[in-house]
Amino acid sequence: MYSFSEITDPVAEKVKETWIKYLSMEYRFAARMRNAPESFLKKLFAVSSDPSIISFAGGLPDSNLIDVAGIRDSAACVLEEEGREALQYTTTEGYLPLREFIAERYRNRLGIAASAENIRIVNGSQQCLDIIGKIFIEKNDRIGIERPGYLGAIEAFSLYEPVIKSVDMNESGPDMEGFEKLVTDDKIKFFYGIPNFQNPTGRSYSYDARKQIGGIVGGSGSLFYEDDAFGELAFDLKPRMPVNKFAPENVITSGSFSKTVAPGMRIGWIMAPPEIISVFDTAKQAADLHSNFLCQKILDQYLRNNDYDAHLKRVVSVYHDNCMLMQDLLDDMTVAGITHTSPEGGMFMTAGLPKGLSSMKLFEDGIKNGVAVLPGIPFYAGDGGDDMIRLNFSNTSEENIKEGMNRLSEIL
After folding, report:
1. Do residues 84 and 280 touch, judged by C-beta distance below 8 A?
2. Which of 178, 243, 361, 391 could, after both became Cys, cross-link 167 (CB 3.0–4.6 A)?
3. How far, in whole angstroms, is CA 384 from its chain's centroid?
4. Which residues are CB-neighbours of 395 under 8 A, at least 6 positions away?
5. Phi, psi at residue 411, to the nearest 5°?
6. Contact 208/172 with Cβ under 8 angstroms?
7. Which residues of 148-202 form beta strands (DSSP E)?
8. Above pLDDT 70, what percent of the chain?
9. How many C-beta atoms lie closer than 10 Å to residue 307's C-beta?
10. Are the C-beta atoms of 363 and 385 separated by less than 8 Å?
11. How confident is the model over 102-133, as pLDDT tens digits?
12. What SS3 class is residue 62?
C-alpha cells in the first residue's frame, strides 16, 4: 500500500501536508446530524450477519422462502423482451403497471377505492419515512408515535428534529385517550403507527380502534401515517381493514414487497391524497429521480406470472409454526417474570423481562453466548424499554429456535 512516508518530492510534500490537514479536520456537519443518536440498525445488521450467532435480533424474512427461480425467470423475460427500456431512466412516479397491480389488490382485498394515480413506488417503505419527514416536519414540530414504536421510524424522523410524543400500546392498539389528546390538544402533524402485527410487539389494532382513529383524525389538521409492511403476513390469511378506509383524506398508507417477495429489490409504495402525492413527487425526484426501474419491471412480471397468494400462504405457514414454537419455549422457561405477546401474524414478538434484568445487559451477555436478542430501548423515543426485548421468528430454523432459546434460558 502507498504510504505518505515514502514522499520526498517537494511538490508531493505539499500535497502530503494538505492531505494530513484534510484528514484531521473537524467536519462541520449539520446540527441535526451532530445531535442524531447512533443508529442501532447498523449494529443490528452487523450482529445478524455473524454466522456463529443465532440471531433473534434481526428483521429479515426467511431467505429460503424467496422464490429465486421465479424471480430469475421474470428477470430473464424482462431483459430479453424489454431490456433496453428497463435499463433506462424512468419517471419518478414508478412503473404504472406495478402501481395498477397494487391499486387493484387494495380494491379486491380491502374494498379501498385505490388508484394508481395516488400510489408511488419507493425504495422500500423505509424511504417513505424519510420523505414524509422531509416534507412535513420542521424543527420542534410535534408528531406522534406508538410506545414502543418502530426504531427505524424513530431514527428517520429524529433527523428532522421534531418533538416526538408517544402513546402507549395495548392489546387493541394505541391508548385512545392519549391518541385523541395528541390530535386535539397537541395538534401533532401526524401520528405514525403500524396497525397490523406491529414492530416490535406483533400486536394489531382492533377493528374498533381503527374506526376510532379514523373518526379522530378525519377532518382534523392531523394525519395518520399507516405503515402496513406486515399486513399480508396474517397467519389466518385474512385481510385487516386499514385505517385508510375510515379517513382516506387524512391517512398516508405505505406498504412493501420486502417482507413478502424479496427485500433486496427495495420496492415499496406509498398511497396518499393527491395534494400530498404532488409534494411527495417533488421530494422524491430531488432525492433519487426514481426507484430501481429494472427491479420494478421484474417484480411486476413476477407478480403477474406467478401465484402470489400461494406464495404468501407458504411464507405465512412457516412463520406461524416458528412463532408458535417460540411462544411455547418461552412458556416453558422456568424463569419467573417472563411474559410475551402473542402475535397473529408478522415477524416479531416482544418478551417482558423479570424485574431488575436489563435488556441491554441481556443483549451483551447473549452475544457472548451465541444468541442475539434486540433490547427494547431503541423502540422508545424517550426513556423506557430496558425491561423488554424484541424477538424475530421469521429468519431462523426450528432447530435454531430451539437451540437459541435454550442459550437464552441459560443466561436468564
Report:
1. no
2. 178
3. 21
4. 48, 55, 58, 60, 61, 62, 63, 347
5. -70, -40
6. yes
7. 163-170, 173-174, 190-193
8. 93
9. 11
10. no
11. 999 999 999 999 999 999 999 999 999 999 99
12. coil
CATH number for the domain running over 40-66+310-411 = 3.90.1150.10
Find the range with the poorest average confidence among 10-14, 220-224, 245-249. 10-14
Cα(57)–Cα(5) distance, integer angstroms: 44
Tell me which DSSP letter residue 240 carries.
P
Tell me the sheet residues that pair with 192.
145, 225
- Counting every residue, how long is the chain? 412
234 forms beta bridges with 345
Confidence of residue 32 (pLDDT cuts 50, 70, 90): confident
The Cα-based distances of 91 to 126, 130, 289 in angstroms read 20, 20, 8
**Closest C-alpha to 270, from 139, 127, 157:** 127
All three cell numbers of 98, joined, read 406495478
C-alpha cell at 47: 450482529
pTM of the predicted protein model? 0.91
Q: Where are the domains of the chain?
A: 40-66+310-411, 68-305
Integer Cα distance of 318 and 65 in angstroms: 9
pLDDT computed for residue 46 by the predictor: 72
Report in angstroms the alpha-carbon separations of 209 from 279, 333, 346: 30, 33, 19
Q: What average pLDDT does range 209-226 have in this prediction?
A: 97
Q: Are 191 and 145 within 8 A, CB to CB?
A: yes
Judged by DSSP in three states, 412 sits in coil
CB-based contact 369:405 (threshold 8 Å):
no
Q: CATH second-level architecture of 68-305?
A: 3-Layer(aba) Sandwich (3.40)
Angstrom distance (rounded) from CA 10 to CA 51: 50
Distances (CA, A) of 302 to 111, 119, 158, 255, 294: 24, 19, 36, 18, 12
- How far, in Å, CA of 15 to CA of 4, rounded? 10
